[in-house]
Automatic annotation (TrEMBL):
This is C2H2-type domain-containing protein. Residues 76-111 are annotated as: Disordered. Residues 87-99 have a biased composition (Low complexity). It comes from the Eukaryota.
Length: 253
């Protein structure tokens, strides 16, 4: 069986002249018509009379490509060699499997089905469990910690407005029960809370007889006749919005 190195043919000439060994190695690039050259080398060696004191040994390093089934035609050899090279490249690529992610890259995104199930799980898990998961992610993954900080923490100036301090971003107004962002500037009118009480304007119920129609100041009448009820803090009717700002529990204390 004849084997040829894939890229180089290494021919070693061992000379013994005067009892002194002299090894000389010649490495030549592997040509496409290597089979023909090897055949020519063999013929040259067989036709040469070698003196007793001079021995020539030709070593063809065997490792990578089996040429026993390749035809003698140079054209067929070139085609087969090209196929072997191409196949070897494809095998290397296929054995590598899926391409590795770039350094620092995270895992791939979830598909639509998995993402929907994750949203359902978040919506149905208990508040305590969800908080525990969020804290664990923040402690384990720096990127998650920074992202959660941006979403849940705001920098607020102190009363002297000289420095800032981190505070919880989302608070619930103690007056209107509306959630608001502590990181935004407070403006008048954002809170619809009235500090006074809503009172009925009995003079506006001209044809209303409480002995016949029932009490005037009822939730049903407040919804049906909002213009007949006023706030005693601003004299506005029940749908009027007071120009207040959101108030936190700490600020109201």
């Amino acid at each position: 069986m004849l084997h040829v190195v894939q890229h180089y043919v290494l021919t070693t000439h061992s000379y013994s002249i005067g009892g002194v060994p002299d090894n000389r190695c010649v490495a030549s690039p592997f040509p496409l018509n290597a089979r023909r050259k090897i055949r020519q080398w063999t013929m040259d060696i067989s036709q040469t009379r070698t003196p007793p004191e001079l021995t020539i040994q030709t070593h063809i390093m065997a490792d990578v490509i089996d040429l026993t089934n390749i035809s003698d035609s140079d054209e067929d050899f070139e085609q087969s060699y090209s196929e072997i090279e191409h196949g070897s490249s494809q095998a290397s690529e296929s054995s590598a499997g899926a391409p590795l992610p770039a350094p620092g890259a995270g895992p791939p995104r979830l598909d639509d089905t998995a993402r929907e199930q994750l949203r359902i799980a978040i919506a149905t898990v208990s508040g305590a469990r969800l908080r525990a998961v969020v804290i664990a992610l923040a402690e384990r993954i720096p990127a998650a910690e920074h992202a959660l900080f941006e979403e849940l923490v705001a920098m607020k100036r102190n009363k002297e407005k000289t420095t800032t301090e981190p505070v919880p971003r989302w608070e619930v107004c103690v007056n209107c029960d509306e959630e608001f962002d502590m990181g935004t500037h407070r403006v008048a009118g954002e809170c619809r809370y009235h500090s006074g009480d809503l009172e009925a304007d009995y003079d506006s119920f001209v044809d209303w007889d409480e002995s016949c129609h029932g009490p005037i100041d009822t939730p049903a009448n407040r919804r049906s006749y909002p213009e007949n009820f006023t706030w005693n803090c601003c004299d506005g009717h029940s749908l009027a919005e007071d120009w207040n700002t959101h108030l936190t529990s700490l600020a109201s204390a």
